[in-house]
Write a structure and sequence with these properties.
By secondary structure, this protein is α+β, with helices and mostly antiparallel strands. The protein has helices at 39-52, 97-110, 184-187, and strands at 12-17, 28-33, 59-62, 65-68, 72-77, 83-85, 88-90, 116-122, 129-132, 145-151, 154-160, 167-172, 177-181, 188-192, 202-208. It has a 7-stranded antiparallel sheet. Keywords: Dioxygenase, Oxidoreductase.
Length: 216
């Protein structure tokens, strides 16, 4: 795979997320780098990662029943970046070169350090991610989450935790980078909904910084 470069002329759209209480400070910031990566390069990277990432389909216990997670996942990172989410402890796989190079490039653009990445493979529109916030204590009070999309465009939704009338919807295209920061995870939920008409796959890479072991 060729070296991953930066698009120095990229357009950045910033969303200041409103507070549920009028007159209160903004409750988060989301930035969309719509053309972070050249489209052709993003598809090349998608093909590479689909073959080389150690994808797994996890199962979760919900209301006493074991249910398969509706997507494939993999957790990569530094050796001490243990992370617990959805009730399961994830020990990181060692970095592979494409993910390590992406981490370095994204750190330059975002201005934050990352020690791990959650990889999600949505095989088609039946695969999804339900409403949630990346608010685990080991990510800190105001984590920076940098999310790179590759492959099939998919819808991405945000809604306020206490006032669901406050919402944002956008489409994440191949090569786009979405950055959530500030108090976003404290006050907002996000999801990738099912889309029955979609038949093609998408990979999403969410880079983050684990600041303390989730075992504690």
């Amino acid at each position: 795979m060729q070296q991953i470069g930066l698009n120095l002329n990229q357009h950045i759209e910033t969303f200041i997320l409103a507070s549920a209480d009028e007159g209160k400070p903004a409750s988060g910031v989301v930035q969309l780098h719509a053309d972070f990566m050249d489209y052709d390069l993003s598809i090349e990277l998608f093909d590479n990662l689909r073959k080389t990432v150690q994808w797994e389909q996890e199962s979760l216990w919900i209301a006493g029943q074991e249910r398969k997670v509706p997507r494939l996942v993999a957790w990569y990172g530094d050796s001490d970046a243990d992370y617990r989410y959805s009730g399961k402890l994830h020990k990181p796989l060692p970095w592979i070169q494409p993910l390590l190079e992406l981490r370095q490039r994204i750190e330059i653009v975002v201005g934050s350090d990352f020690n791990s990445v959650l990889c999600n493979l949505y095989r088609d529109g039946q695969d999804s991610m339900g409403w949630h916030a990346d608010d685990e204590k080991e990510l800190g009070a105001e984590p920076v989450i940098a999310s790179l999309s590759l492959g099939q465009p998919r819808a991405f939704h945000l809604k306020h935790k206490t006032n669901p009338k406050l919402r944002h919807k956008m489409t994440l295209t191949s090569g786009s980078l979405l950055v959530m920061k500030g108090a976003t995870q404290q006050h907002w939920l996000h999801q990738v909904p099912k889309e029955a008409n979609i038949t093609q796959p998408r990979i999403n890479l969410t880079f983050r910084n684990v600041i303390g072991s989730s075992v504690k």
